[in-house]
Predict the structure.
Amino acid sequence: MDFTLVAAQFLNGLQLGVLLFLLAAGLTLVFGIMDCVNLAHGSLYMVGAFVCATVTLATGSFLLGVLAALPATFAIGVLVEVLVIRHLYQRDHLDQVLATFGLILVFDTLVHLIWGPEGLSFPLPQSLNGQVVLPGNVVFPVYRLLIIAGGLAVALAMWIVITRTRTGMLVRAGASNPRLVNALGINIRALFTLVFGAGAALAGLAGLLIAPITEASIGMGNEILIVAFVVIIIGGIGSVRGAFIAAIIVGLIDTLGRSFLDGAMKLVLSNQAAETAAPAVSAMLIYILMAAILYFRPQGLFPPRVR
Amino acid sequence: MARPDSDSDSTRARLRRASRNPRTLAGAFAFALLAMAPALTGWLDEPFYLDLATRILILAIAAASLNLILGYGGMISFGHSAYLGIGAYAVGIPAYYGEYSAAFQLPLALGASALFAFVTGLVSLRTRGVYFIMITLAFAQMIYFAFVSIEEYGGDDGLVIDLRSEMGGIADLESGVQLYYAALTSLVLVTYLVRRVVRSRFGLVLRGSRDNDGRMQALGFNTFRYRLACYVLAGMIAGLAGWLLGNFTNFISPEMMDWTRSGELIFMVVLGGAGSALGPLFGAAAFILLEEFLSGFSIYWPLGFGLILILVVLFYRGGLDGLLDRGARTTRSTGPSNPSSREPERCSTDPAA
């Protein structure tokens, strides 16, 4: 186990963590403010990837793809909020789960209808396709580094918006007492719609960022959505700060576990036993972590103080 | 069904009342139809319909198990397909090693499900509301990924089960008809068991905990233990359904425990009417028939399916069983048994909790 490999895997874990944060932030905001579970959040991730892929392939510019996909996912988020989600705020969680599960089927099928059953992949522009040599001789792809930087920038921007601006103040106020905010003359419905759209755009951003590495494919959001759930459970549902820390932890543990667990297990087990058990255990690692944290802190690491 | 029959009722009066209750009639009709289904499909020479009916029965058992915790216990488990998978792998893995005896496989299916339910229940039942939904979801995903990454048992591709469980002369499951009757017998037993459990003191504590956990605790009940016991029982019933499913499909893959399967089970329970004895059967039948019907039209059938799901939630409450209930409402005075009509369950981050 040499240093460069560990460092590269560490950065990979960070990159996964940042993506998970983008996805989890919208989820935890929507839950924290509107008390609503949204299973269809992963669908926006998928839509972001597909729109970006289509525009990039048509125009040849990844930047245009990004600029098209962000407003598109925002608009779709607003549409979904107005048509479906809005009517679920006063319902119990079972209804929310079922209706948003229905939304997943609708989104997956619509994407199938529009883009066909095959995935959509597109190449990165030349400028982003290279490798950089970081201090310590660590070779790392430029694009993955860009994802980390972009994600951290978005996290910082969110923190500033939520804690330092009037909109952020209203969001926080709406989270602790929506009726009072409404009575003070703030259009809380519009605020909710805005937050939902912003969460959708963040999910879309996560999807379009990963699309050049993997590809845009149907159902791509459904698997990562569960990991995003694990993130917000560990972080404490409703807490953006908790989501950020938990996302980084989960990203690192998942990536490092998959890379190094078999080596670690070979120290205590026979080679063959380690080879068999390591993939299964590393796949379960984040869930075991979640269970362990919940056993001691049933409300996650950073439960929001006011609800 | 929430109203306990008083002892002063004469049997005849009860029967007379039951014969006027649309729900009882529908139930009797459904079971009579199910008992005759193999004869009907044999006469029509349509073995496909027998397969369809077997699938309905197996999923009805799984839905009945989910109904026990969701409908009566108020625990919205989004990981119920894990037990279907565990039960099915309890057929597949022994068969992989040449062990086909049901006397070994069935206890393995029930025991492994009970163990998984117990361990995950210890953690997940400490939480409520949305946390519970997401944690059960995550645990099911954990077992899903565990089986995906075990290459020995086929990983993603799954395992083919070359022979069905050997019942030692009681039944020959290789025969579709006998497998069907095994599933039907199981469903009848499970429905009876759930009914008994729900009406017992245990069930009363469970329902009390669903409606007001704090009050039940104040009365001195350790509701956590009751809920955990119920959760384990439900897991075992779903494990039984998984055992039947493995035998029915002759194939097992992690795809069976995909989280969308759990969502479908919840839909069946809600479609049939959560917290009703026959709801799961109606829900499973409606779900499978709807799926069969829609998929006949176009490969894009999930679109219609999803839209129906959304519309059912937005505009229609109480499930199919509630429809029958409306006919019986005049003779009954019980409160709503559907959890969706209760006060919205607040998340446990509530400072008061």
User: Anything to note?
Assistant: The mean pLDDT of chain A is 89. Chain A touches chain B through 54 residues (CB under 8 Å). The first helix of chain A runs from residue 3 to 34. Chain A is about 75% helix and 5% strand.
